[in-house]
Amino acid sequence: MLTVFVIYLVIVFLIGVLAEKFISKSEEGFYLGDRNFGPWATAISAGATDTSGWIFIGAAGASYISGISTMWMLPGFIIGYLLNWFVVGPRLRKEGKELGALSIPDYFSLKLDDGKNILKIVSSLVIIIFFVASMASQLTAAGKTLDATISFDYNIGLILSAAFVIGYAIFGGYRAVVLTDLTQGLIMLTVLLIFPLYMIFFELGGPANFFNTLQSIDPLLVSSIGGATGAAGFGIFIGLFAFGLGEPGQPHIMQRFLSARDDKTISQGSFIAMFWVIVVMTGSNLLGLIGRVLIPAIDDPEYIFPRLTIETMNPLLAGVVLAAIFAAIQSTFSSQIMVSTQSFASDFLKGISKKTYTNKQLMFISRITMVTLGIIATFIALLNIQSVFALVLYAWAGLAASFGPLLIFLLYTNVVTKAGALSSIFTGTFVTIIWINTPWVAYLYELIPATIASITVLLLVSKLTKRTDSINDELKSTKEAKYYEQ
C-alpha cells in the first residue's frame, strides 16, 4: 500500500514541477497558465478543486451519521453546476479575456472601472479570510487520512502534506495546479465510481439488501431528512440543498473559466462536469453508508472511509484509494493556495501600491506569499478546532454569498454600481460570520440568509447610487475630452 502511495506522490510532484517549462514568465502564465486549457483539463480540474478532501472525509462522515438525508446535496450541486457551466462560465471566459482579468477581484475592478482598486482590495481580503479556513480543513483531512491508514502522526502528516503541495505549486504555478488536478481528478472519479458499486453489489448482497441492512441498524439512516421534523427538518433539507447553489461564488472554480482556451472548451467541458458531479456526490455519500454497515461504531465518523479502505482491501488497492483521498485533498489545497497567493501578491498588493513591479519581482513575492499562507493554514489545522465538513461549509457559504450574486448581476445586467458591489461583498461576508455564531444556524445554513442579504443590499445600494456613478462618469468623460482638445 505504502509503495503505491509513494509512487503516486512522486508522479504528481514531477508533473507539478515540470509544468514550469510550459508557462510564460509572466503573471498571466503563473496565475492562468496562459489561458490555454482544453475541456478535460478545465472540467476535471474544476471538479477536483471543487469537491476536495471533504468528499472522502467530511461527506462520508456526514452520511455515516445522518444516512441518506445527505443526498439532498446532489440536486443542489446539479443546479449549481448547471449555473456555472451554462450561465456563468461562457460569459465569464469571454468578458475576462476581453478585459484582461486575471482573477475574480480583477474582473470586478475592471468591469466597474474601479480606478481606486477598492473592490479589488476588499475582494482579495475576503478570499484570503475564507480560503485560509478552507485550506486548514484540507490539511485536517490529510492528517486524519494518514493517521487512520498508516498510523502516521496526525500533526506531522498535515505539515508534510502542506509542504508537498506548496513544493510543486511554487514552481509550476497555475499550470502545475491544473495538470495535477487532472491527474488526481481521474483517480478520484475512478475510485468513487467503482468502489461503492463493487461493495454494494458484490460484498453487501445488492441494493435491496444493503438498504434493508441500514434500516435494521437505524431506521433514521433511510429517512429522507434523518428523522427531523418541523423547522429542524426544513433546515436540514434546505441547508444541504443550498450547499450546491453556492457554486458560482467560488473563486478557485471561477478561475477555471478564466483560463479556458475558448468557447468550445466550456461547451464540451460542461458534459464532463455534469457526469463528474453525479458520480462524485453519489459515490461519496454511499461510502459513509457502506461504512455504517461494515463498521457500526467509530470514534470519529470522518475516519470512516480510510478505516474502510484498510479493513476491506488488499494493500495494492488500498494504496490506490489512499492516493484518491490525497488527490481530493491536494487538488483543492493547491488551487486555494494559488488563488489566495494571487489575491495578496497580485490583487491586494497592486491595489494598495502604485509601484510597478517586474515579472521577476512579482513571481518572488508570489512564492513568498504562498509559503506564508501555507504556514498560517497549517497552524490553524494543528489547532484541530472543527470538523472538515464544518470548516468547508463555513468558507463555502462566505464566498458564495460575497461573490455569487455580484458576479451573476455583473455578467447579465448593467444595474450594479461600485458602491452596490462593495456593499454586497461586505454584507455577504459579515452576515455569514454573524449567522454562524447564532443559535439560528442549527435551523438554517448561513449561506441562505447571507445570500439573500447580499442580493438585497446589492440592488438597493446600486439603485440609490446609480445617479452618482452616472455623474462621475460624465465628469470623467468631460475632463478627458478637454484634455485631448488641448
Structural commentary:
The model is unreliable at 479-486 (pLDDT under 50). The radius of gyration is 23 Å and the shape is globular. The longest helix is centred in the middle third of the chain and has 50 residues, at 154-203. The protein has helices spanning 2-18, 27-32, 39-51, 54-66, 73-99, 104-111, 118-150, 154-203, 207-217, 230-243, 251-258, 263-294, 304-312, 315-352, 359-383, 388-412, 418-435, 447-485. With 486 residues, the protein is an all-alpha fold. It is built from 18 helices and no strands. It has one domain: Sodium/glucose cotransporter (Up-down Bundle). Helix 7 runs antiparallel to helix 16 (388-412) and helix 14 (315-352) packs across helix 15 (359-383). It catalyses: L-proline(in) + Na(+)(in) = L-proline(out) + Na(+)(out). InterPro entries: Na/Glc_symporter_sf, Na/Pro_symporter, Na/solute_symporter, Sodium:Solute_Symporter. The chain crosses the membrane at residues 64-87, 118-136, 156-174, 186-205, 225-246, 271-295, 315-333, 364-385, 391-412, 419-436, 442-461. Pfam families: SSF. Belongs to the sodium:solute symporter (SSF) (TC 2.A.21) family.
